[in-house]
Each structure stands twice: as C-alpha cells, then as structure tokens.
Amino acid sequence: MHPLQTLWDDVRELSLGTTAEISRLPSPPSPLNFLRDFVSANKPCLISSALRHWPALSNWSDDSYLIRSLSSHPSDDPSLVSLHLTPNGRADALAPHPTDCGSDSLCFASAHVERVPIGEALEMIGRSGEGFVAYAQQQNDCLRSEYSELAADCEEDIPWATEALGGCLPEAVNLWIGNQFSETSFHKDHYENLYAVVSGEKHFVLLPPTDVHRMYIRSYPAAHYSYSKEDRKFTLELDEPARDVPWCSVNPHPSLEVKDSEVSQFPMYFKGPKPFEVTVKAGEILYLPSMWFHHVRQSPDSQGRTIAINYWYDMQFDIKYAYFSFLQSMRFVSMHNSKSQNQAPADEAGSNLKDYLHINGSIPNLIESFEESEDF
Ligand SMILES: O=C(O)CCC(=O)C(=O)O
Prior knowledge:
Elements: H1 3-16, E1 23-25, H2 31-39, E2 45-47, H3 56-59, H4 63-71, E3 80-86, E4 90-91, E5 93-96, E6 106-110, E7 112-117, H5 118-126, E8 133-137, H6 159-164, E9 172-178, E10 183-187, E11 191-199, E12 201-207, E13 218-228, E14 233-238, E15 244-247, H7 256-265, H8 267-271, E16 276-281, E17 285-288, E18 293-299, E19 306-314, H9 319-329, E20 330-334, H10 353-356, E21 366-370
C-alpha cells in the first residue's frame, strides 16, 4: 500500500473512526473535555442543544424584526450588508475560464459583491434562482460590524470554547444568510471554527488535513463576476493584475453527466476512504477543526432561508500545523506525462491515481518531489 493510503487509513483507525460519521455530543462539553478530546486531537464534533438560550433562534425568522433592527443605526443611514451575487450560487469556486473557451480550462471565480440594505438583501435571496443567486455573507467579522445591531441576539463567543482555546475572544464572527441555491466549495481555514446554525440546515463534507492530496490543489487564474442589474447579466473577467489562486479541484457532488469524468480525474478523492458528512441543524454547533477541508451546502427553513454564524478562533501554530504543512508541501510528480490543465508540472498531485497509488496492483515508477507550495 502507498504510504499516503496508509496515512489516510491510520488516522481513521487510530483517531477519527472508520465510518463517515463524526462524534455527537448531546450538550456542550466542559472546556477541559473539549480541549482534550477534540481540539488537541484535531477532531470534529457536533454539539446539540448548544444555542437554547439565543433569542436569534426565534427572532431571526421574522424579516420585519431583521429589517427593523438593522435600520435603527445610530447614524441616519440604514446599515448596509454585503450581498454576494453569482449566476449559479458558486462563489470562490472553479468556473469555466472566460477567455480560454476552446478548452476545458477553469478559473477561480469570486462573486460580485454589493452593499445593500437588509430588506433588499432578503428580497434578493428569496428571488435566487431567477438568473442570479444571492448570499449575504462577508468573512470579515461582519456580525460585529455590518450586523452589530443583531449581535445581542446571540453570544459574542462560545464560552466553553473560548476557555478551552486559551481565553481570547474569537478573531472574527461571521453571519451567513442564504438558501439552497448557494454552496461553498472545498477549502480550509487557519482557524478553529465553531459553526452555529440558527435556522435551516447546513450540510458539510469534511476531510482531515492528512488527506490533502485527495483535494488535487492546483493553481487557477483569479477572476471575478460583475453583475449588471439593467441587463440582468453576469460577466466573468480575469483579475488585473493577473494572479493565481491555489484551490481544491474536487466537487464532491458532481452531476450525473460529469460524474464519470470527475471520478477518473480525481480518483484519490472518489476512490479513497469516505469523507465525513454531517448535517448541522438549527440549535446545533459544529466544531470544525483548523485546517480541515470543508464543502458546504444548505437547506432552508420554512421561511426559505438558512442562517448561520461562525466563530473563528485563532489556531495554535503548533507541531500539528508543522506536520500538516510539511505534508501539503510534498508534491508527487508522475513519470507518466499525464495531461492536466491549469497546472504547473510540479502541481500534478496525482491527476492519475494509477500513476502513483497502489490501486490497480502496482506502483509504477515515481518521482517524489518536495517543493514549496503556496498557502491557500
Ligand atoms: O456556510 C458556508 O457557506 C461556508 C462556511 C465556511 O466555509 C466556514 O465557516 O469556514
């Protein structure tokens, strides 16, 4: 067996479990248990009955409450919230390259972002699917800035997590308001994430940092959508100056038409150990450990909406971080000249599993190269 496959199996057998399930706790853990069993082990868990006391759980299903609260800004201007618009609900995700139309090259596409009053944002989210998809979110501590008038309806931190993580308040607290049309592509963050769902459900697919090679991280040219309200049209343009973004190539939910081709392009993902899957319901918190890869979809509540808050705490840049970074910096270059687009040769992290993993009987000749890889 290839050493990488041994690693994937070992972490499951020794720590994470061999099913696609993560640990479930019926109520919040003590800080000590949380630190010992989950943070130190870099292991996710789902905590039920975690937000019972939050007024947000009842208040935020009422649009007029949200609009009233966010219009009572101390200045005369109503506060504006960041609304991310895309043609298909996939922001910060791979999309067909805007100019290289003849091939199947891809780019990394960011959303068109507008700052609008909350009433308009809610209306646009409700109309998602009519030629655009709207997702109210901004990963810049937006609960404590754009939505500060709502902050009293939840907690400024998750107390048992704050204590376990060293006593400092979260670095950022972000609010996400969307529905089933928006999804978040596979990526990882350098934060300990306490992800609290207020309404609707979030569906996570998770992979541990040890499985980094299964994500086929490659460099893609950065691009951004612009949306014209008059024409109701999106255009996708490459960023200027040009820059590349290293991003995960795998979509865990390919449509039936492309499934076979995705499986053959990304066999280490589709044929390796099952990823962990968890649905987080209103009132629950997911502990998503630092450096874990996550892909997120959502289902709305009866009002047609999904609302969540993530608390990003500083992670420890400790020995685990050093090991994970080292692992990510290992690039495997096949001797066979596998054809792969958008990719520097050193990035050919197993576009063809047979080239270097023991799946079909033998491990052919390999060159293993250790190269600096960009953070993402
Ligand atoms: O809820 C989402 O759409 C994405 C959440 C996420 O990526 C995060 O909390 O890091």
